[in-house]
Amino acid sequence: MSDRDDLRKFITDLAVVRGKVVLSSGQEADYYVDLRRITLHHAAAPLVGRVLNELTADWDFDAVGGLTLGADPVAAAMLHTASRPLDAFVVRKAGKAHGLQRRIEGPEVAGRRVLAVEDTSTTGGSVLAAIDALREAGAEVIGVAVIVDRGAGDTVRAAGLSYRAAYTLADLGLSA
Ligand SMILES: O=P(O)(O)OC[C@H]1O[C@H](OP(=O)(O)OP(=O)(O)O)[C@H](O)[C@@H]1O
Ligand SMILES: O=C(O)c1cc(=O)[nH]c(=O)[nH]1
To answer: Is this prediction's pTM over 0.80?
Structure first.
C-alpha cells in the first residue's frame, strides 16, 4: 500500500464521525471529519507530512502553516518529513496583546514564499483569514493545500490561489 492509501485508511477508520454537527461556518452537517485524530496520531502524522509534501512537490515555498489549530500539526508534519529545510508558522485567530504581540508565530515570514495549509477546508473562510494575515505580514502565499477538501476549492481559486487536496469527500466514501 502507498502512503496515500495508508493515510486514507487512517482517516476513514479514525476521523470520520457520523452524526449531526455544527461546522465552523455555522452550517449543519451529518458527519464530521476530525482530522486532529490523524494529525496528532503517532503513526498517521508522518503520513500526513509525506502525502502533503508529495502533493506540493512542484510548488516553490520554504515555509508552511495556517490558522491555528487545525493547520498546526499539518505544518509540523510537513516540516519533519520534508527533504529540504522547511520552516513552519502558526497564524493566531487573533493577535495577542502581550509579549511580542505577533499574530504569526515562528520564523519571520516577510518576503518569503509560503504555503497555506489546512486539515480540512469547507467554506475556505479559515484559510482565507490566514492568507489575509500572511499577506499583511509581507509573505507571498503561493497556494493552499489541505488533507481533505470539504468544498472550499472554488472559493479559494476565486481568490486567485491554487488549491490542492490530498482527498476529496468522494475519495473517503462521503457525500457532499
Ligand atoms: O473552511 P471553513 O469553513 O473555515 O472550516 C474549516 C475549518 O474548521 C476547522 O477549524 P475550527 O474552526 O473548528 O477550529 P480549530 O482548528 O481551532 O479546531 C478546521 O480545522 C478548519 O480550520
Ligand atoms: O467545516 C468545519 O468546521 C469542519 C468540518 C470537518 O469535517 N472537520 C472539521 O474539523 N471542521
So the answer is: yes
